[in-house]
Amino acid sequence: MPLPLVLLLSLPGCLSIQGPESVRGLEGGSVTVRCDYKPRWATYRKWWCRGAYWELCRTLVQTTGSQVEVKGDRVSIGDNQSHHFLTVTMEKVRQDDTDTYWCGISKSGPDLGAPIRVTIEPEGTLLTTLASMLSRRTTNGRAGVSSVSYSRNRYILLVFVKVPILLILVGVVLWLKGLSNDSLST
Fold first, then answer.
1. CB burial readout 62-87, b (16+ within 10 A) else e
2. Which of 98, 141, 154, 176 has its CA at 20 to 30 Å from residue 90's CA atom?
3. DSSP 66-85
4. Molecular function terms in GO for this entry (predicted)?
5. CA distance 80 to 88
6. pLDDT at 34 over 80
7. How far apart are alpha carbons 159 and 163 in whole angstroms?
8. In the prediction, which pLDDT does 132 show?
9. Contact between residue 110 and residue 100 where contact means Cβ atoms under 8 Å apart
10. From the centroid of its chain, how far is CA 186?
């Protein structure tokens, strides 16, 4: 199997845990983030931490390895093990909550994690009005802002990675077929 084809087939779900690239929230409101993980990690502990660097990230809340929701200071985490996603809700958010956060899985060896940029907008701006309208729309328990960002990332992956690789593979196959037809006619 050619290497590009292997890459194409391995791209979907290549990471063990995935979340939106970024989410936005309104000051004083709440932000909900959904991170999906592969089924093999269902009974492992999940966590939410804050910090731009993995090594310096401070854990804010962690599950017990079950589906029981765990609450911390203005943060809660729940694990839907049957559908393989965790949900983190940050409440009464402030502008100084703007930072990089990580949703992760505790395991032996290095943990698994996905970075998420959380931005909290001050009330009263045009952007906060738009964010408020988006966050009211929910899909399967996900905040609309998170879903839009997550869907956009998947679309970008499709358009800028998978489609070009597929077109290259088709071009190579047609080129090779043309070479074999030319060699047969000579």
1. bbeeeeeebeeeebbbbbebeebbbb
2. 154
3. SS--EE-SSEEEEEETTTTE
4. transmembrane signaling receptor activity
5. 11
6. yes
7. 6
8. 54
9. no
10. 54
pTM of the model: 0.62
Residues 25, 121 contacting (CB under 8 angstroms)? yes
Which strands make up the sheet holding 85-90, listed edge to edge?
A: 17-18, 31-37, 85-90, 75-80, 70-71
Q: What confidence tier does 137 reach under pLDDT thresholds 50, 70, 90?
A: very low
pLDDT digits (tens, 9 = 90+) for 158-172: 666 777 888 888 888
List CB contacts of 97: < 8 A, sequence separation 6 or more: 90, 118, 120
- Domain segments of the chain as ranges: 17-124
Instruction: Tell me what percent of the residues of the chain surpass a pLDDT of 90.
Output: 50
CATH of 17-124, one of 2.60.40.10, 2.60.260.20, 3.40.630.90, 3.40.630.30: 2.60.40.10
Tokens of 71: 């609450």
pLDDT of residue 172: 87
Query: To which residue do tokens 């731009």 refer?
Result: 52
- Under 8 Å between Cβ of 24 and 9: no
The CA-atom distances, in angstroms, between 14 and each of 11, 97, 122, 177 are 5, 30, 36, 32
